[in-house]
Amino acid sequence: MGGEDNYQETEASLLGKDIYLDTAFVLRTMDQNILKRFFRKHPIERLLFGTDSPFTDQKTELQFLNNLPLLTTSQKEKIAGQNAARLLNM
Length: 90
What we know:
Layout: H1 7-13, E1 21-22, H2 32-41, E2 47-48, H3 58-67, H4 73-87
Parallel strand pairs: 1-2
C-alpha cells in the first residue's frame, strides 16, 4: 500500500488502478484518515493481506485487520484471504 511513508505517491499514482496492493505492515502505521481514503479509493478486491512479509508478526497484523472499524466483516475476509485465493485460482 505504498511502503513506509510513500502514501501520497501511492494515492496519486496507483489507487483505483487494476493492480493489487498489499497491506504488509502499514495497517498499523498509516494514519487512520489515510487508511480510510485508501479503502475508499482502491477496490477492496485488489487488496491482499501480508504477502510482503515477514516484517512483523502475522498474528498481530491479522488481529489488527480484524479489529479495524473502517471495514465490514466481508471486506476483512476478502483482504485476509479470499482475494488471494481468487487470484491464485484456489
